[in-house]
Amino acid sequence: MSSSFYRRAGVNLEVGDEFSSIAGEVCRSSFDNSPYIRVLVPEQSSFRGPRSFQFVNVPLDWTFDLCPDGAGTKPVFCDALIGALRKPELVRWAAADWWQMCVADVLRWGGLPVLVVNQLDVRSLGDPKGSEDERLRNAIFCQMMAGLGQIAREEEVVLYRGETAEMGLCVGSDNPDPFAPFLWSGAALGLYDPSRMIVGENLEPGMVVIALREFGFGANGLSAARKAFSMMFGEGWHSNSHAINMIGQAAEPCSSYSSYLKDLNGWGKRGRVPVCLISHLTGGGIVDKFYRDMLRPRGLSAVLDDLWAPPPIMRSCLDWSEGQMTEEEAYQSFNGGQRMLLTVRPIDVEDCLRRAGHFNVHAKVCGKITQEAQPTLRIQSGYSRKILEWD
After folding, report:
1. Which of 1, 340, 362, 369 could join 213 via S-S bond, C-beta 3.0 to 4.6 A?
2. 3-class SS of residue 155
């Protein structure tokens, strides 16, 4: 197949090669990020060449795991934002959404993320030598890749490999006229020291629950949010000028708790804090990931009466649903203003909060673990202040 025919089919090999070379350099710049990974690359190897890695400084009894995840439908909001404002820097941190989903699934069990791979599917990479729109599309994805490299550097993780594919109309969207639609996902490799794993085995009544604040949706609940947007602004909400401020709030990238959690789990210079449970509030939220997965099977209950308030965009989506979404459903669809809950002994609360401040993580005591005749979760709703209950 000639390259000109392939280009008419929607794939520009020359632009793809140039972008892959840029992405390859982002990967290579990360190879020394982790003290536990040694990347081996033959001399004179191109960005497509072979590579391998070894574990170093890893005791024989340590284990490892792979945690895959993606950004869900968050890219629909990112694309709508960039299509309206046409500023590539607005999506520089788009990688944070799938990245934090992956690495947090390592950190919540007390592990250490050390290596990440990713898959970026786009409708078109644009063309740095093409029209204004084509140049802008290309600049968007170059910005996103640069942001990914910065995240990897700040979190001391090796960005080992990646794949980018131009997929044409196979990268879909509910936006009838998307500007630069994409899908992005990845997987994190994490190391586990068996003596530091956190599985909730020491949970007991009287323990304190700490909430880590999230300022946006993260990468969950965006399908419900898109439905709410369509109810408020119509099916063409993506290009509605009255919706742009709300679109920007929905596109807010995930917060990072990585450095803080690594410090608590003893992967930094300070001693470990014996956290009893870390709940990552993704799909199903507090109800599933905290209560039904971890507390109810142990016959435990919880009262959460001082959670962070839901971000304004979540309140708006609940209002726009016109009663079709209840507050109970909102707490299972959205994170409600916190993407992680830590359960600790009362004597460890002060240390946890002090360390959170050191890493600029917004943390506060939000409730406690209790013992009742029948396991129950009680939440004081941040939407109305009424008490919500689940058995």
Report:
1. 362
2. coil
